């Protein structure tokens, strides 16, 4: 089985309405990106950098102008549907009046046989903890519950790739954590995930980070390398003493900032902690 789901080779793209810009000023420029089965990719970028446009491009949406080569695995378009995208406004990706109806419609649209639909819908809603609320009107669900319903739809149809465009932007920390955990669990079960965010605190050690800045991919590599302040000759840190994170003007997660400060005080920390629990382990070593 081909392990590559999507390969973009120097793709420039402009959505409808922006095509007059020409490719030089395209909303995405010269994008090189490969997504393999089962991968986790965190896409970061500031407002207007091109994240949502990338989400649309990856989902298979039509564009006014595309240059370059784009390969997409046939599994992404079973039954002619595009890749599921969970958006910032939870309602945007919902089609049913209740979570139950939403999942059932999603299964029907994906050509799942009628007799197995109730069981599949129940299993997906149980997994995200929403079975008891399955007949509650969508408009009365909390933001987090709506996002979980959208995620249950992706679980139910076993999508090989799932794109989430700032899914936690409107959620409180607890709901954000719950949504992230559900998506990580889908990823552990084999789905590739593109998680778009502006919150670097959502990164975990080992994540692949794709940083977009002004329509271009400026970094694609392991999170640890994104915060690396010393050049290793392989191009992750292009300016000695300054990480790619700083160069591109992102706020690092708290654990990274603390590790940098420890380093400044003469306590180099390796491997670089990204999550607070990893930082705690490092501090314990000094205690
Ligand atoms: N259809 C369009 N017509 C004209 N300009 C567009 C169109 N779609 C996107 N753009 C422009 O392209 C740039 C990137 O937009 P995009 O929505 O991809 O950014 P983003 O990184 O998702 O931003 P945000 O974090 O604010 O949602 C913006 O300057 C936006 O105004």
From TrEMBL:
Coiled coil: none annotated. Residues 6-239 form the ABC transporter domain. Pfam families: ABC_tran. Keywords: ATP-binding, Cell membrane, Membrane, Nucleotide-binding, Translocase, Transport. Gene3D superfamilies: P-loop containing nucleotide triphosphate hydrolases. PROSITE patterns: ABC_TRANSPORTER_2. The keyword Aminoacyl-tRNA synthetase does not apply. GO terms for molecular function: ATP binding. Belongs to the ABC transporter superfamily. This is ABC transporter ATP-binding protein. The lineage of its organism: Bacteria, Bacillati, Bacillota, Bacilli, Bacillales.
